[in-house]
């Protein structure tokens, strides 16, 4: 007689409530931005009482930090030559910005709110800095982090002008042209010898 297969655990009601709040918050922050999104509107979208949002997340900043737990899904660059890094990263980020409105909302919040700025900084530090550390030829302390910050300045600058402010020349530029302009700069920040 074979043993009975384990039954997957049934999500507790609190897990479902938390997930519903986070889903509603992501949608609301993406649609309205941080400043205009309200706890009351998020609670309504999640079909719960606003006090439940406060119970789970404490305040709007706590809710945003949890909702903005964002995975950039950085590509594995270990198999790439150093000449391919800039193209791979720029293409990856263009795919991410164009494929997920939440990332654009995170950028909007990052420039208008201190909690949002801290979240954007943490995401890029945690997820871009390891790539810089893996390919940076300069092993002096802090150099990989400085290079990652330079990469972020380029990536975020293009995202701001192309997807948030929608400057006509930047928004209308074909992707291939954006990659052709930006990739060599990102490449240089990651792999060039220190000036």
Can you put this structure into words, describing what you see?
The chain is mostly helical. It folds into two domains: 13-67, Homeodomain-like (Arc Repressor Mutant, subunit A); 82-191, no CATH class. Helix content is 72%, strand content 0%. The chain has ten helices and no strands. The protein has helices at 13-36, 39-46, 50-57, 60-67, 85-99, 101-112, 114-135, 143-164, 168-172, 175-191. Helix 6 packs across helix 7, helix 6 crosses helix 8 (143-164) and helix 8 (143-164) packs antiparallel against helix 10 (175-191). The longest helix has 24 residues, at 13-36. The protein starts with 12 loop residues before the first helix and ends with a helix. The mean pLDDT is 86.
Secondary structure: elements and pairs:
Elements: H1 13-36, H2 39-46, H3 50-57, H4 60-67, H5 85-99, H6 101-112, H7 114-135, H8 143-164, H9 168-172, H10 175-191
Helix pairs in contact: 1-2, 1-4, 1-6, 2-3, 3-4, 5-10, 6-7, 6-8, 7-8, 8-10
């Amino acid at each position: 007689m074979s043993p009975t297969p384990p039954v997957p655990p049934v999500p507790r009601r609190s897990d479902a409530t938390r997930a519903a709040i986070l889903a509603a918050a992501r949608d609301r922050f993406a649609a309205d931005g941080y400043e205009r999104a309200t706890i009351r509107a998020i609670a309504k979208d999640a079909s719960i009482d606003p006090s439940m949002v406060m119970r789970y997340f404490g305040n709007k900043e706590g809710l945003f930090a949890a909702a903005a737990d964002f995975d950039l899904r950085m590509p594995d660059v270990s198999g790439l030559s150093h000449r391919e890094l800039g193209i791979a990263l720029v293409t990856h980020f263009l795919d991410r910005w164009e494929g997920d409105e939440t990332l654009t909302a995170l950028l909007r919040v990052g420039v208008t709110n201190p909690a949002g700025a801290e979240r954007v900084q943490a995401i890029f530090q945690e997820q871009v800095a390891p790539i810089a550390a893996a390919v940076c030829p300069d092993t002096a302390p802090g150099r990989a982090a400085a290079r990652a910050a330079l990469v972020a300045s380029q990536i975020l600058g293009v995202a701001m002008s192309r997807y948030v402010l929608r400057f006509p020349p930047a928004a209308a530029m074909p992707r291939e042209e954006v990659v052709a302009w930006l990739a060599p700069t990102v490449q240089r920040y990651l792999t060039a010898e220190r000036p």
